[in-house]
Amino acid sequence: MDRFKEVAVKVPFGPKCLEAALCVPASAEDVHTAVILTHGAGGDMNFKHLLSLAHALASSGFLCLRFTCKGLNLGYRVKAYHAAWDYLKSLHEFTVENMFFGGRSMGCRAAVALARQLSDDSQDVVQGVICLSFPLHPPGQTQAHQQRSEDLRMLPEHMSVLFVSGTEDNMCDRDLFNGMVKDMKAHVDVFWLQGGSHGLTVKGRSEDLVLDEVNSKIITWIREQEAKIT
């Protein structure tokens, strides 16, 4: 028996729609936690890492919506993310009690920005944010780290953040990253992928094994957050 099903959906976004996919666990009536995911500056929702994570999440009992938005303007991306969140809330066949935002690279910047915006209105909207390869600065341009980390530093204390980053990521200086984490009010967990690049690839290791390791860390983390909430 399949552990989940994936359905192609259209997310209303102004006068057009965003391409999206909804992964639903086999026992949909037991779904209480949802995760929204989106891609980085390149690629789309079927980028291998997102596809792998979405399927792992749904196989573990979590509802997962991932979507494509190729605009490179962060404000535009945040609006698209908001549209995805609105769409997920409209699915009345699920009783979602816990919401997590996530994304890869630029996608997690959009996720963080929206989580911060929503937290200004209500404390209970988003429980946590999953940041895959947060791009703290462009390669070789570490001076951008303050501006790029502003939303992270403004997240409230009740929110949790998981960072998954490679130790060889040229867009995430370790010293600057550690300094940013100290400045954050939110609860932070960090998983450093040894030898991992910005694309979370590791020389000498199978990509599938790396993805399994990353997915396992994320699922364990979400379950830990659920336990805190209940």
UniProtKB/TrEMBL annotation:
It comes from the Eukaryota. Residues 33-221 form the KANL3/Tex30 alpha/beta hydrolase-like domain. InterPro entries: AB_hydrolase_fold, KANL3/Tex30_Abhydrolase, NSL3/Tex30. This is Testis-expressed protein 30. It comes from Parambassis ranga (Indian glassy fish).
